[in-house]
Amino acid sequence: AQRVTQPEKLLSVFKGAPVELKCNYSYSGSPELFWYVQYSRQRLQLLLRHISRESIKGFTADLNKGETSFHLKKPFAQEEDSAMYYCAPLSGGYNKLIFGAGTRLAVHP
Amino acid sequence: SAVISQKPSRDICQRGTSLTIQCQVDSQVTMMFWYRQQPGQSLTLIATANQGSEATYESGFVIDKFPISRPNLTFSTLTVSNMSPEDSSIYLCSVAGTGEETQYFGPGTRLLVL
Question: Rounded to an integer, what distance in angstroms lies between the CA atom of residue B78 and that of residue B35?
């Protein structure tokens, strides 16, 4: 079965520290992968997708097919990065997003 | 990206009743989806709302419990039928355009069943 794993429920760091939110998937082929973010009292929104290879708000994510991982990284965390982050592979051919359990990032001053 | 609204934003309902949630988009979209987010959990896809035909339900979700309508390319409804406290969740709709894989989400409807 297709699965996505975000092993950390909570990641707590200090402002300015590097951040890595882990995501592993078990899919065949080359899935399309997304990171969605939900800030407090806001709707779920797209942060980035791997195919675009963009850096959004200082975040990047590299697809590692060998490790089947799509970890989200930022070199220097900011307090405004505090939010819930979801890794979501797209189930190929069906436009179905499969959401991970989510990781809450807390950035402390 | 499309502007998506949901009504109601929240509701408190009695068990055994039904609630219909509306999702409105400001532009025509090909794909519309309904998700559930139970307390403290991640999002789970309920169904894909198909314009002009029956919705496609995911495993564990059935039409009798979650009937869905999609009369046109900008609007869909999800009904939560014969509610029980276990249906207390946030219900979200999302949309994607033709050929697009990125989904955009509505603000959600927070439902509490007593």
Answer: 10
